[in-house]
Design brief:
Largest sheet: 5 strands, parallel
Number of domains: 1
CATH topology: Rossmann fold
CATH architecture: 3-Layer(aba) Sandwich
Strand order of the largest sheet: 4-1-5-6-7
Number of helices: 12
């Protein structure tokens, strides 16, 4: 039996957490992407149907399990689309970029492009340049529509799985393809930080997290070697959560996610380890070298205050 003192301490701690959550302003998150954001897993349902392991919903679930007020989320997603499509949609219907937030500005806009377009050998220089331009245009549109301080998260996607037909003729290995994706997502983030200022954009290193697991076909990839498994999408959401909230996934116990995550305790522990260990790149921008190293070291946005 717990002592009265222990129960009083636990009650006080619970009250403190509740007070903190009540005082926290929820984040407003806007996602532009395609099936990788939708969490599309074709043919994985019983009987061969398709499933969707929605990545933004998983981020929301991680946040609430970690004691945060649930973020407000809107998705502008379409399977197979790229950021050029979303630019056209946002320019045609700009009101969509401020919908469903109760009039509150967006805290972050999360951008995820078609999975081959930012890779050097599966695209061309014009397409890669367009990826960077589209990232800037969408960020500009969001900022112009009631959210002048909205920061950008670049959702870095993963290389094709090892059995994909892009190997060995286009790329030798998934690691080689990921090198290009990592480079070009970083360059897109650098362009945004050059335009807006240091730490206005960050890259969520989801593809790098897949690389930590050696692009394991069975663990991470659907049969098409393109879309992910429930494990891969839960890992994607964990890396994005850590990037947005600057919180460790290891702080969230399995008991807090067991009802929705669809994984064993051991699998979740693996996600916790990878998500917390993968390096989130420090923002880079033209002129950043002029800023003292001590000022740059460890600087992070206070996400929950945005």
């Amino acid at each position: 039996m717990r002592s009265v003192v222990t129960m009083c301490v636990m009650t006080a701690m619970s009250a403190a957490v509740a007070t903190t959550s009540a005082a926290e302003t929820p984040l407003n998150l806007l996602f532009f992407g395609n099936s990788f954001t939708q969490g599309y897993a074709p043919g994985t349902a019983p009987g061969g149907g398709d499933l969707y392991y929605n990545v933004p919903d998983a981020i929301k679930s991680y946040a609430t399990a970690d004691g945060h007020v649930a973020p407000r989320i809107v998705q502008e997603t379409l399977g197979g689309s790229n950021l050029s499509y979303h630019v056209t949609q946002a320019q045609t219907k700009p009101q969509e970029t401020v919908a469903n937030t109760g009039g509150s500005p967006w805290s972050y806009v999360v951008l995820q492009d078609e999975s081959l377009r930012p890779a050097d050998k599966t695209s061309d220089a014009n397409a890669i340049a367009q990826f960077r331009a589209d990232s800037k245009t969408l960020s500009d549109l969001v900022r112009a529509n009631n959210s002048p301080s909205a920061a950008t998260i670049m959702y870095q996607t993963w290389a094709r799985g090892p059995v994909s037909t892009v190997y060995p003729n286009t790329y030798s290995t998934p690691g080689a393809m990921q090198t290009d994706l990592t480079k070009n997502y970083a360059l897109a983030g650098t362009s945004l930080n050059t335009a807006y200022g240091y730490d206005e954009a960050r890259v969520a290193p989801v593809g790098d997290a897949f690389g930590t697991l050696n692009f394991d076909s069975a663990l991470l990839y659907n049969a098409d070697a393109r879309h992910s498994t429930v494990f891969g999408y839960r890992l994607s959401a964990a890396v994005l959560y850590r990037t947005i909230y600057n919180e460790k996934i290891s702080d969230i116990p399995y008991s807090a996610v067991q009802s929705w995550i669809g994984l064993t305790a051991g699998q979740y522990a693996q996600i916790q380890s990878v998500a917390d260990s993968v390096a989130i790149p420090e923002p880079a921008a033209a002129g950043a070298a002029a800023v003292g190293a001590s000022a740059l070291l460890g600087r992070r946005r206070a996400s929950v205050n945005r």
